[in-house]
Please model this.
Amino acid sequence: MKRTSFSEMPCSVARTLDHVGHWWSFMIVRNAFYGQTRFREFQESLGIAKNILSARLKDLTEAGIMKKIPDRNGSKYSEYILTEKGWDLQPVLVALMQWGDKWEPHESGPPLELLDKRSGISIPYQGIRNTEGDVIPREELTSRFSPAAKEMLMKKAAE
Model:
């Protein structure tokens, strides 16, 4: 079944979902954050069908989120590594994980604890922060359309 493309939508969330909106895509990216690089590692750890994994890895590489490179140890197999664009998804993954730990917890508790490598201290809830690093309470957060979005909306209204 062909999915609808959101690539032409002005919404950043919609365009992002065009690349990582399939649940397997985010699971692959998650495992890449954990250090997996090989097709076989992804396939075995996720229990994903090979054809689905191939399609998702192709999508992720075409989107510039992962890069396919020759094996660094000289094996005939390739590796899939995160690009800078891929690593920039880490805060999104952490937000999903923290949301899941709060709202969809496993009976035995959170499966993973994020730690600051330097101090060994657990990373607190990330939330949306101001320039001083303080979490902004949701009732104090607002948004507005950018000038480009306003212009787009006016053009659509005129059509």
